Amino acid sequence: MNINASINFPSGSKLTLVENFFSKELADKINALFKLPGDQWTEDAVFAHQPGRLSYNNKHSTRDAIDAYAVIMQDTISQAIETKVSYIDHSLWLDLPGYRIAPHKDSEGYPKIAVQVYMGDPELVWEMLGFCLYTEDRRALFEAHYRINSGYIFLHPHKINHGLNHHIAPQFVRNSVYMRYGAE
User: Fold this and answer.
1) Could you list the mean pLDDT of each consecutive 10-residue stretch along the chain, which spans 184 residues?
2) pTM for the full model?
3) CA of 31: how far to CAs of 27, 44, 49, 126, in Å?
4) What DSSP assignment string belongs to 4-20?
5) How far apart, in whole angstroms, are the C-alpha atoms of residue 6 and residue 143?
């Protein structure tokens, strides 16, 4: 994992932008999961208020590999955000054309640390599908580009408005691995 930048906020939140998060071998296996047939993906009930996000909830050896890797990365992530972390779980998200995430703050306390890594086919990537931070009055402040095997580590996502500033265009999808960590 390479760290590109870190931003500390007065609220106590910290955003760390990363690239090459997963090894190439694991990234290739994860991308293969996103090519599984649509009937293996289900609407994510947590996001029912904003339809268009599907989750892969089946057991799979690649999901076990993601869990193992996420545990191995605990010390690296702890150093990056200067907070001791412990891995909780992960989700695989496939966001469909038309999907958008309005500015919001996560529920307080869960997760304390969010790690989202964008995956997918480099030929089907539009950089404007990345993470956006917003001001308190919900104006776009900063957008991180959507790049394969890149993303962010976000300490205290319940303290800052964030979301997806653009609707996903018809020819694109947004694939990501979302990992949750607790703070010790």
Assistant:
1) 92 94 97 91 80 92 98 97 96 92 86 94 79 93 92 94 91 93 90
2) 0.94
3) 6, 19, 27, 17
4) EEEEE-TTS-EEEEEES
5) 14
Count of positions (residues) in the chain: 184
Q: Which helix (H) or strand (E) holds 32?
A: helix 24-33
Side chain identity at 165, as an amino acid letter?
N
User: Cα–Cα distances in Å, from 73 out to 79, 147, 167, 175?
Assistant: 10, 20, 32, 21
| Residue 77 and residue 113 in contact, taking contact as beta carbons nearer than 8 Å | yes
In angstroms, the CA 115 to CA 17 distance is 10
Find, among 115, 105, 121, the residue nearest to 67 by Cα: 115
Task: Name 37's Cβ contacts closer than 8 Å, sequence gap at least 6.
Answer: none
